[in-house]
Amino acid sequence: MRKQLSKVILIIAAVLLSLVFLLPTYQDYQYRKRISSLSGQDSIAYVDQNQEDILNAKLKRLKLGLDLQGGMRVVLEVDVIQMLDDLAKNKDDNFRAIISEVRTQSSANDESVIPLLGKKYQDRGIRLSRYYGSIRETDAAILNQLKSETEKAIDRAIEVVRNRVDQYRVSEPNIQKQGGRRIIVELPGVKDEREVRSLLQGTAKLEFRLLRDPDISYKVMQSVDNFLSGKVEEDTSAAAKTAKKEQKPKDALEQLLAGSKPAETDTSREATFTRQHPFFSYVIPDQRNTGEGFVEEKNRDRVIRLLERPEVQRLCPVDFEFMWSAKTQPMGAEGKRYYQLYAVKRTAELTGGVIVDARASVSPEDNRPIVNMEMNSEGSHDWARITGANVGKRIAISLDNRIFSAPTVINKIVGGRSQITGLESPNEARLLEIVLKAGALPAPVAIIEQRSVGPSLGEDSIRSGMSAGILALVFTVLFMLVYYNSAGAMADIALLFNVIFILGVLAGFQATLTLPGIAGIILTIGMAVDANVLINERVREELAGGKTLRAAIDAGYAKAWSAIIDSNITTFLTGLILYQFGSGPVQGFALTLMIGIAASLFSAILITRVIFNFLTDKGVMPNFG
Amino acid sequence: MRFFKKTNINFLGPRFRWYLISSTLILLGMISVFIKGIDWGVDFRGGTELVLAFQDNVAIGDIRTALDKVGLGQSEIKSFGVERDVLIRTTQQAEGTVVGDRIKKAVQDAMPEKKFEVLKEDKIGPKIGAELRRDALYAVIASLIAIMIYIGIRFKFIYGVGAVVALFHDVLVTLGVLSLLNGVIPGLNLEITQEVVAAFLTLIGVSVNDTVVIFDRIRENLKIYRSLSLFEVMNKSLNDTLSRTMITSGTIFIVLVVLLLAGGEVTRGFAFTLTFGIVTGTYSSIYIASAIVLDWTIRKQKRKEQVAL
Fold first, then answer.
1. Do residue B120 and residue A452 have CB atoms under 8 angstroms apart?
2. Is ipTM beyond 0.85?
3. Alpha-carbon span A521 to A593, nearest angstrom
4. What is residue A236's predicted lDDT score, i.e. its pLDDT?
5. What is the count of structural domains for chain A?
6. Which residue of chain B has the CA closest to A202?
7. Residue B255 to chain A, least CA–CA distance (Å)
8. B133 lies in a domain?
């Protein structure tokens, strides 16, 4: 009897524990029903009163996967190579060649970047100290340093992403590091994915750059135009000569303007102008002599491609770069939208690292949304110096290489304050505030995987999952009853406990229930009866062999034991491997499978045994059909 | 109630017939895979996949025309369960989620009056696709090895081999069937997604269940019936466990059919794979696994004189 008692206590404890774990889910469900049934004011009051309880229930309840509640899952990969590029000094052609080789090679497979880089330098016999660190350091030391820099950068990137997501106020976000340089971000219930993407990806590289003088800007534009139209400039550098041999400008021009190039026979003035001034036909110089160019929205991609060509880039002087405006402006009678092309210095005067606070606000002058920024003391000092030295000149404020505004410096700014204007909506200002406050990403991140599930698909999935689950349960219960009679009824009781246990364990471990997870529970229902089938069949055999009921039950359990153990362990093993391999929902499935197997072993063996013993002690004969 | 009264079927006698049937099935399946190729889902191929739920019916042709305008006319477009839901898939890669946005915008521009909701959107970069494929292969191989080792330890090495041969057979046959039936039944989408790979691994785990139960009975019977040959003991064991095997497989099968029919479009490929897999799994556990062990043992016996079991 004592053995029996301890078993009973164990079972009751397990059931109670499961129910305790599942209670918050029930509570959360009740709270939600209550809140949605109350009207506006009442519901707010209700939430305030029971705030702590509601929050508690929400935190501890059974979590639904993204595929059931809707939301986004994004895998970001930190662009370590870009970071290595930015960290280097004295960059020359050799350096650039190596970096691009490393980039192509590491994108083909998942090779670790740092050792690859080291090898490339070794192969060419160049010391790393030429571009990194100091000349006294060995290659190995520098590689180590770079490695720790990249690891720190990735951790910092995770922090930045976490900060941004926190401020964006997603409920129950999940951010994890994966492998060497990946970040998994799960955002349940997110509706506007475009916002989220820009939130996650924007490096938030804030820069203050001086504009180049208008005459220099126009001179460069003119030379680009000349080059493209075939009046090739004399360029004495060897590189340019070889480049000339590789590709005739006119053919290249034809390629680029394919689709819009006027036919040779088209002699209209527009066509002639386009042929003679391939650059200026798309880039309209500002009549106010600011050095800017205006490009119609539809032509921007074309101009970008023109400017990307290495020959064109070589025409730009050393400290010179073209940069685009972030937004378009309507211009002209038809109100067509135009981007602005600015000529800026290549090196930034000041970067976002000096920003300590940012606040979205509304400009008192014209009621448009703006973001006010404050700098740290060092930044304020530099800012005062820069503005003092450049009164009357224009400084462009750019974010991720897109210029938001380029105001003229009126006088020296001492307080370390600045503003970003030219924003479209208060929402954009808010996003910008979050991104500036949380910090700049140390390196660009690319979205390499994104999965989003709309909320209605999520609801559908829950509904179909649950109906399939209930159907499966009903069928199994009925079948066991009919086929194995009262022994089958015992198995059914064990099965029901089983389901409670599985859900309880999931809730207890704060694991997530996904749609494949529900499928896993359904599968477990089918498999859970297996142990009981094994036992019941064995007992039937023993009974047929002539044993008493009690003896047959004992023998049945004993002999079925080894088969039950072996078969369940093998299935558990595949579940384990599946858990390792899978990601997201598949892991959810593997988890419910493993928990289901463990729970079914527990309930099938322990619970039915206890019930049988109890009944036979009382003299009731369970029927094995 | 009993479905299976005391049976005495000669399972292992005609086993060469079963070897032949199995080999033919596998061959047919592999031919189909060879010709049609494996229909990797977007998880493994990389690219973008969108499911749009329209409020009214849309013609797939119209959607294709719309996508053609942005150079995506080659995308796969099919219905997702119900007629109003459309699945659009392309392997084109671009920065971030550009492709998905392009698709949505193209459809919106071409048919502004047809409102749609995005049910789901997946974008998989090329690196991830290749990695997932590699991981899937490793997972299947790892589980087969793990099972072989575990059963080899609990029984004898040859039993491990027999079990794994049967499992490998299940994987190949199911793969073949998926390939053959893909696109044949309207509305049934049988591409290889992550969930389908999970179904394969599960099928390995569940099929080995049956095999282990039979092996366990063989092990037990060998101790009891020392005078019978391995062939006779195996046959007896198969008959002894037949009732249990069929009941369990039957219950799981019906549960899976419920999932297949009532579980919604998202789990359909998974449910189908597993449903079919259970059938071959049961078949292979009964007809193939023990047969392999038997034939191997006979061959070994011919080389030695003693049989130590």
1. yes
2. no
3. 7
4. 36
5. 4
6. B96
7. 5
8. yes
